[in-house]
Amino acid sequence: MSPYHDLYRQSIQDPEGFWKAQAEQISWFSFPETILSKDENDLYRWYRGGKLNTSYLALDYHVENGRGEQPALIYDSPVTNSRRSYTYRQLRDEVALVAGMLRSLGVEKGDRVIIYMPMIPETVFAMLACARIGAIHSVVFGGFAARELAIRIDDAQPKVLLTASGGMEISKIIPYKPLVDQALREAKHPVEKVVVFQRDFVQADMQDGRDLDWMALRETTAPASYVELDATDPLYIIYTSGTTGKPKGVVRDNGGHAVAMKFSMQHIYGIEPGEVYWAASDVGWVVGHSYIVYAPLLHGCTTILFEGKPIKTPDAGTFWRVIEEHGVNVFFTAPTAFRAIVKEDPGAKLKAGRDLSSLRYLFLAGERCDVSTLHWLEEKLGIPVIDHWWQTESGWPMIANMAGVELLPVKPGSAAKPVCGYDCRVVNEKGQELGPNEEGALIIRYPLPPGTLPNLWQDTDRFVGSYLRLFPGYYFSGDGAYRDDDGYIFITGRMDDIINVAGHRLSTAAMEEVIAAHPAVAECAVIGVDDQMKGQIPLGFVVLKDGFDLTEEALEQELIQMVRKEVGPVAAFKRAIVVKRLPKTRSGKILRKIMRAIADDKPFNFPSTIEDATVLPEIEQVMKKVAR
Ligand code: COA
Ligand code: AMP
To answer: What is the CATH number of the domain that holds 559?
Structure first.
């Protein structure tokens, strides 16, 4: 049996033995008493009784073991034309100071801290500082609007919010503080203190009594050491789009996470401690949590924090520059980033003269890697280009080519094979396993391995309802897939109303909520349609109320602005089309699945429950118009 198949088989046949051995790879204060057990909600938990601290493992442990002078974090910011590098010792000291700052504000173990910050080192300090004192961080992506931040504030109920005066999007200054102020006005939960990191290019207005200056606070703070935490204590909450307007608060615990992060670096990404790992994503997304901050540091690597875009900062050669300049060994980003590069520099002229010999693997995720981008990359780089599949919920890859164990042949369009610990099945709606090349729902045997979500933040019912109820004994991923004759899995896309825009996961329901609030709109539907660069973009269909004196163009502009203001620019909502009716079932449910099938030019079955099939030609006409 090949090394991958052998290791995978062990992980499925004896999960407890397998994950006990992996747990031995990290330095616990007390080794777990049980490897797998159930909690009071009848949900599985890994490593109960284990004591550790994630910030200790990511920083102090390395300083104690000879990595103190190795670069831990390299901040490379083409948008502000700056670079900074922190050794493990320096990073530990910075983190300890921010931990002290939080302590001085009364933040204790179990308190929540919201981090709404751009891609600067202080954001990384803040995350690790929370981990150090056992506070639970929740990082909110900067491209979300005030309302989305307010929703997260009300759900997480943080004691403190950490922010910066602004971000830089290519050359556009995005002031963050007005958004924070607006969110705090909208939220019901009162946040006691807001700490603001002032950046040179934009100054934030401060509110007396509530807002504090980050650097001033740092000056007067004593560093805080790490505390001993239970393996099952939450490390962070990350909100992700669900099928309703309310995002899901995915919880990550300390023990399972640390073990899974370390395991994945070695066995999936095939990288050694001391090497350089770069995930070009944003700390606001799960990729940023796992592979900019935690995994590289837990594994003793140097991680790159890149504040820029694949293009225009200053050009489509910026990725090649970073790889060469910092000697990146393993690189991870979303295919959309490379589609943007291919569009600007199809011949990769900007790569000429760059020494990329350090680079061993390129990993891609966030969306399916289209075959032409894959081939372009393989040809230009001459190294394995590895598509791998995972979700915010899992926190680390579920289907991948486990390069650190055995590099399997790459099959274009496939994320390869299940990762150790993930017993993946493709089933029909009755839960019956399908044969090769038959498309169905992708489900994974429960319990999922360590590091995956143990629950949603204070919402066990939603956790069970969203993931465990549909296929008893299995986790429902929400994605469709098929397996080929060689056992390679091909992801065919979401089966629900979640869309993926430029690698960003968004809820169409959240956009519909905003659009439906417009006084002229009787009803609406938002679906994702194909886009050459972003993978998908949202497209709104609206039915007007009678008697509104507004041109379709004016309405579209108003709706675009509303979605931008309420959900955020990251939604990239740019088109809303007026139609007379929407396809619905007799009970009034909008048939978005059929609309999506029409948009993607895919065959679909007429549901017997459709209210009136004569509505479909109008939708088809609209799609043709949009395609033009
Ligand atoms: N703060 C504030 N605004 C932000 C933001 C942030 N952190 N991130 C994005 N935005 C804004 C952008 O300024 C843009 O606003 P605009 O409509 O005023 O131009 C909008 O949100 C959309 O941004 P983006 O999705 O980045 O699209 P783009 O057209 O500017 O760039 C790509 C396209 C492909 C270059 C870019 O999306 C990209 O680099 N994607 C990689 C995605 C990724 O890393 N995903 C993580 C999973 S691995
Ligand atoms: P997120 O939670 O933001 O990471 O988004 C997860 C979703 O993105 C998955 O459910 C998939 O729909 C999609 N996705 C992520 N990676 C891939 C991939 N490699 N291939 C296909 N779809 C992917």
So the answer is: 3.30.300.30
Atom number in ligand 2 closest to CA 392: 2
Please tell me whether residues 473 and 519 are part of one structural domain. Answer: no
Q: Is residue 369 part of a domain?
A: no
Provide the b/e sequence for 199-234 (b: ≥16 CB within 10 Å).
beebebeeeeeebbebeebbeebebbebbebbbbbb
Same domain, 400 and 514: no
Domain around 619 = 498-627
Burial of 327 (0-12, 13-18, 19+ CB in 10 A): middle
DSSP count for the chain of H helices, then E strands: 20, 31
Split at pLDDT 50, 70, 90, the class of 211 is very high
Same domain for 22 and 103: yes
Average pLDDT of the residues in 357-383: 97
Same domain, 104 and 222: yes
Distance 145 CA to ligand 1 centre (A): 13
pLDDT in tens, 221-244: 999 999 999 999 999 999 999 888
CB distance 332 to 531 below 8 Å:
no
pLDDT-derived band at 628 (thresholds 50, 70, 90) equals: low
Point out the ligand nearest to the CA of residue 291.
1
What pLDDT sits at residue 236?
98
Residue nearest to atom 6 of ligand 2 (CA): 391
Q: How far is the CA of 493 from the centre of ligand 2 (A)?
A: 8
Q: Are residues 460 and 530 in the same domain?
A: no
Average pLDDT over residues 480-500: 95
CA dihedral 83→87→91→93, nearest 10 degrees, is -120
Answer whether residue 315 is part of any domain.
Answer: no
Does the beta carbon of 151 sit less than 6 angstroms from any atom of ligand 1?
Answer: no
Tell me, yes or no, whether 330 lies in a domain. no
Pocket flag, ligand 1, residue 366 (CB < 6 Å): yes
Measured in angstroms, how far is the CA atom of residue 570 from the centroid of ligand 1? 6
Q: What domain count does the chain have? A: 2
Q: Which atom of ligand 2 is nearest to the CA of 415?
A: 19
C-beta of residue 502 within 8 angstroms of C-beta of residue 475: no
pLDDT > 70? residue 325: yes
What pLDDT is attached to residue 329? 98
* 394 CA → ligand 2 middle, Å: 11
- Beta strands 172-175 and 521-531 are unpaired
Ligand 2 atom nearest the C-alpha of 478 is 10
CA of 173 to the centre of ligand 1 (A): 14
Query: Looking at residue 171, which CATH number applies to its domain?
Result: 3.40.50.12780
**Model confidence, pTM:** 0.95
Whether 369 is in the pocket of ligand 1, judged by its Cβ within 6 Å, is no
Closest ligand 2 atom number to CA of residue 504 = 3
- pLDDT recorded at residue 87: 99
Is residue 57, in this structure, part of any structural domain at all? yes
Residues 279 and 421 reside in one and the same domain: yes
Task: For residues 34 and 89, state if they share a domain.
Answer: yes
> Is the domain of 115 the same as that of 209?
yes
- Could you say which ligand is closest to the alpha carbon of residue 501? 1
pLDDT at residue 627, as a whole number: 67
